[in-house]
Amino acid sequence: MDIAEFVKLSLGRWRSQRSAHHLAFGHFEQVTSIIDIVPLDKDDLEVIKLCKSHEIDPQTVNHPFRMSWEGESDWDEEESFKGTTILVPIPDLDNSQTGRLLRDQGYAETIPSIGNYHITEDGTFVLLTQYERATAEEKIWFVNPNFRLRVSMIKTSEGTGVVTASFSSEIRSLSNNSEN
User: How far apart are CA 68 and CA 153, in angstroms?
Assistant: First the structure.
């Protein structure tokens, strides 16, 4: 699998169930959410702006996409959360299974970020992102085209201690009904 195949397989609406252990707070959290992943054109203004902010040639872009989410947590049952981010894969010229991933909003910190990705022989997408105060490691793999699993760890900026660990199972919504 290369980045183009991974993005194509990821497109659509996903129902996500996430369990997170916030080790710093000694807290366990259950999160349910809907995740929408839609393709963007290489010449989309947001894609070009993100590339230019990192001094990257927009012509090197491969399959940019937008990910939006809305969900609820049992940590604060009265408040729902939602967000959106632009993601732009920049594959290495000599290897379509490795590269950088630009985000206009990071996972561990809500700032623009650049992570390094690689795709393993078994098709697992691995993303490592260094932030100012933390390091994030995410792994996503497909059990079948409509079921994927994701694990994430937020580590201290030195990468020596785990602050948060989570596991998500995500099922593609096959209905055209937007309420699913």
Answer: 20
Residue type, 167: F
Q: What kind and span of H or E run contains 52?
A: helix 45-53
For the chain, count helices (H), then strands (E): 2, 10
In tens, the pLDDT along 25-39 reads: 788 899 999 999 999
C-alpha–C-alpha distance, residues 121 and 102, integer Å = 23
Q: Quote the pTM value.
A: 0.89
Please tell me the chain's helix, strand, coil percentages from 3-state DSSP, rounded to the nearest 5: 10, 55, 35
Residue 62's φ and ψ, nearest 5 degrees, are -135, 110
Extract the tokens encoding 77.
């049952």
Contact 90, 101 (CB under 8 A): yes
